[in-house]
Description:
Blueprint: H1 2-20, H2 32-47, H3 55-69, H4 71-74
Amino acid sequence: MSNLITDTSRKEQKSTVITEKTYLVKTLNIAEDDFKFIKKYVRYRRMGGDTEFTQKEALEEAISMLKDKYPEVAQNL
């Protein structure tokens, strides 16, 4: 019974984290080669053990790297 309560609290914590970000559904123009690279990178990560890695996460990772490289831009958001 205590395992069930623990599992429920984990789900609540996870949903709390999800609600902190707002996601928009937008159309994005992307070069075919760049899109192929993202798909290949996702396959690479999945084969490396991160079996649920997504294209969305790949884009988030890339944007995070840009924010780290250009913090002066990220500060003005």
